[in-house]
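User: For documentation purposes, I need each entry recorded in a consistent format: the amino acid sequence on its own, followed directly by the corresponding structure tokens. There are two entries in this batch. Please keep commentary to a minimum and don't merge the entries.

Assistant: Recorded as requested. Entry 1:
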Amino acid sequence: IEKARRMDPDGDYRLIDEGDLSEFQENTYDLALAVFTFDNVPTMEAKVKLLAEMRRLLKSDGRIINLVSAPQIYTHEWASFSTKDFPENRQANSGDKVRIVMTDVVDKRPVEDVVWSDEAYQETYQQAGLHVVATLKPLAKEDEAYEWVNETRIAPWVIYVLQKVRETLSRKRIVRTF
């Protein structure tokens, strides 16, 4: 945090307790960004709680961008990741721990994540009162200056664009608008 503050003195950097967003005012933010955060949140209950807290902070038309690892990242080889030493990843279900090695860093110890399927994310978002506006699965391009392994055919990551589900009473029934 100190390094971030030195590099960006006008920024607001805080260290908060895990999942505790209570110090932030509700209906204040246009955008919340979570990058690989949910790869390490172990349960549906914990994911829903954190996403519901993020939802609380959004303005009515605000968005959450949630960048997560696709389940396929744990079962294929990549330019900068390897899973060949972890065949058990292939049998992993949502909520199971999986391992992967980053090959482009000095520390080659396995990283442990929690795999979560698209279906599980859809359920998680619904329980948190969020609607998926867009799902993006970016691929690399063959003409790029990298030796891609599977990145041009299989997206290793998924980007979910989320917004609040707004419920209104209409003709004695609840109508969800997006």
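Entry 2:
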Amino acid sequence: MNTSSRLNQSLLGALPAGISRPQYQRDRLQPGIVHLGLGNFHRSHQALYLDDLFQQGGSQEWGICGVGLLPQDSKMAEALLPQDYLYTLVERDSQQETMRVVGSLCGYLHAPSDPAAVLARLTDAQTKIVSLTVTEGGYYLNQGSGELDHEHPNLRHDLEHPEQAPVSVYGYLSTALEQRKAAGKAPFTIMSCDNLQSNGDIVRRMLTRFAHLRDPQLGAWIESNVAFPNCMVDRITPATTDTLRAYVQQQFGGVEDAWPVLGETFRQWVIEDKFSQGRPAFEKAGVQITSDVHPYELMKIRMLNASHQALCHLGVLLGYETTDKAMQDQHIPALLNRYLDTVRELIPEPPGVNLANYQQTLLQRYANPAIKDQLARICFDAS
């Protein structure tokens, strides 16, 4: 195909033979999951696990409807809608590269443009899970007190003007749950997929506090009836570049993807098995289902997060721009190994994990020359 055209369902059959693509009937997907804050990480992680599940013949009641909460998220709508919500995931390490078209998204809504449509989707009985990647700031957590920052302008708006369209994640969740409660519908499960320790516990505390301020009875109902599983997520997913867009178009023989995603080959997802209205068979797609996520969180925070921060700050001070270049400096891997050797002795080994192997995997991931993760991006997450 020589002419440039946008990726969409009708063009899947025209893609080169080596490109993996959905083999299931996407028109049968039902939006059982609404994802708030759909960005690159969700598309390289949660959406991919669901795509894997559908490829195996898994229940198609768990399609994903993405929601953009911010004004700038209109760009994602402009990318996905003409493509029938399809996008390309490129997975790379030093040894291999794979390209696949992911089809688990079956809708996308832009909340600032159409808040009523978002609330209608959240209150629909089909919606059984609402997942989140809204970044740490989207939880409105006061870092000093650990409590809800209810004086934030967005939260004040949603508390003082419940008759108006919500602007915060808690505004949307509490309004939808209030409407489901009034209609006698069961509540959806709320599953945070952000990189926060005890993320389910955090969103439960913050949302119930917000709901109590709005209506004490609603807050009590949410606290008693809504499930908030904790989960641990892991995959390095850099920002999309024009270089990646051009590469995908070249590999696709001229077919353009407006917003492809690049990810490393490693991925991990550990979920607490606590859902109020059922869940997909995540374990069939490689997700670890457990009664306690904490040991996995402790491993990730003390080994991955801490060593990642050490790598990025040392790398910047030594004049490097990307993780792979910093890892070529003999002093940095040596220091990281010394740190990880020490801290590994202080961490209980989670079920199914060998910490020594996990340590070596971390160092290999940091050194991956195919990802070129920007050190400045990682430093931005520091305190």
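Summary note for entry 2:
The chain has two domains: 5-291, 295-379.
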